[in-house]
Amino acid sequence: xxxxxxxxxxxxxxxxxxxxxxxxxxxxxxxxxxxxxxxxxxxxxxxxxxxxxxxxxxxxxxxxxxxxxxxxxxxxxxxxxxxxxxxxxxxxxxxxxxxxxxxxxxxxxxxxxxxxxxxxxxxxxxxxxxxxxxxxxxxx
Length: 140
Known about the structure:
Elements: E1 14-16, E2 21-23, E3 32-33, E4 37-39, E5 42-44, E6 47-49, E7 52-55, E8 60-62, E9 65-72, E10 75-77, E11 80-88, E12 93-95, E13 98-105, E14 110-112, E15 115-117, H1 130-133
Parallel strand pairs: 1-4, 2-5, 3-6, 4-7, 5-8, 6-9, 7-9, 8-10, 9-11, 10-12, 11-13, 12-14, 13-15
């Protein structure tokens, strides 16, 4: 039997369970992480992580996202910025703008917003600045 090599997003460091709702306004400090996160519940607030963010089929994020790799099977109401790639499954629903180097979208995924894709879309040094200006796509 051939075993598949585990990728970093296969083993998240933090899991927000299916029946859990987190309101970031109640958290102390910034919502940043160096590790990977999987959300199967509900998260309200902005997320800034360096590695992988996985939003499962029952997951919901209301807020802007900055991450390395973003995999969405649930719903996001907010802008998504990735300096690596964004993967949207057939069950994903995005209401917001997308800015990434690589976009992989399955048939039947839903996007309501603008997409900027390609090597010129976002640079690593812009990553830290974009959270405040990503909502103003009209200025671009």
